[in-house]
């Protein structure tokens, strides 16, 4: 998984960021943690899902493709973060091409590392 440098987080998770990422990378159970990722297929912009899905064997091949934009504390927080992300991109670009916006930034980050 790749993580956006300026990862969006629920307020309650800010102090736990490194621990949550470590647990995600090591396939540990995390209750009520939702990941907001760039959509891999189709015309969708973003998707979000419970982090527990990462533990399913069927999801393993897709795990490496995940580009995480945000981590939320529960479903409702995830909905709120998606709204915040959309508003931020709209303000910065005048549009709502979220996937394109974040792909460009993440690719630029890869080049500078």
How does this model look, in words?
Strand 2 (33-38) and strand 3 (46-50) form a beta hairpin. The longest helix is centred in the C-terminal third of the chain and has 19 residues, at 75-93. By secondary structure, the protein is of the alpha+beta class. The protein has helices at 17-25, 60-63, 75-93, 98-112, and strands spanning 2-9, 33-38, 46-50, 67-73. The mean pLDDT is 90. Strands 1-4-2-3 form a four-stranded mixed β-sheet, with helices on one face. The protein is built from four helices and four strands. It has one domain.
Keywords:
globular, 4-stranded mixed beta sheet, 113 residues, alpha+beta
Present the secondary structure layout:
Layout: E1 2-9, H1 17-25, E2 33-38, E3 46-50, H2 60-63, E4 67-73, H3 75-93, H4 98-112
């Amino acid at each position: 998984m790749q993580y956006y440098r300026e990862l969006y987080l629920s307020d309650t998770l800010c102090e736990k960021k490194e621990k949550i990422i470590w647990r995600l990378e090591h396939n540990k159970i995390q209750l009520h943690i939702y990941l907001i990722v760039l959509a891999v297929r189709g015309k969708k912009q973003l998707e979000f899902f419970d982090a527990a899905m990462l533990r399913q064997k069927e999801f393993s091949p897709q795990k490496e493709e995940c580009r995480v934009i945000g981590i939320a504390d529960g479903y409702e927080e995830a909905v709120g973060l998606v709204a915040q992300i959309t508003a931020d991109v709209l303000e910065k670009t005048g549009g709502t091409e979220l996937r394109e916006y974040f792909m460009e930034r993440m690719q630029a980050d890869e080049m500078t590392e």
